[in-house]
Amino acid sequence: LEAARPKALKIIISGAPASGKGTQCENIRQQFDVVHLSTGDMLRAAVAAGSEVGLKAKEAMESGQLVSDEIIIGVVTERLAQDDCQKRGWLLDGFPRTRAQADAMAEALIVPDIFLLLNVPD
């Protein structure tokens, strides 16, 4: 019999640039075999896939605007619902960045098991 896989971990990591986030993300990904997700990569993938939310993101990016919280939340929730994230768990890098994004995550019932904040003094 194959051993049952432990519960798929849901992890969020946040920290300032040069806080070691990239290194920690790679360590966590290797140790726990979770899907590493960054909002930038997810936005580019949604645009490339031509999904509805991807087309909205493309429009915002091409016009030089910041991509709205609503669009980013759509991209994130769409990606987290995919099979690999559901089966293996996920490591969300750099999201949420705003209170609105955090509130939207809670409303969508996206709750991490672990929230890592890398706080590096100046």
TrEMBL record:
GO terms for MF: ATP binding; nucleobase-containing compound kinase activity
InterPro entries, A to Z: Adenylat/UMP-CMP_kin (IPR000850), Adenylat_kinase_CS (IPR033690), P-loop_NTPase (IPR027417)
GO biological process, one term: nucleobase-containing compound metabolic process
A Pfam family hit: ADK
Keyword Kinase applies: yes
Keywords: Kinase, Nucleotide-binding, Transferase
The keyword Aminoacyl-tRNA synthetase is assigned to this record: no
Domain of life according to the entry: Eukaryota
Cited PANTHER family: NUCLEOTIDE KINASE
Family: Belongs to the adenylate kinase family.
Protein name, as recorded: Adenylate kinase
Origin species: Phaeomonas parva
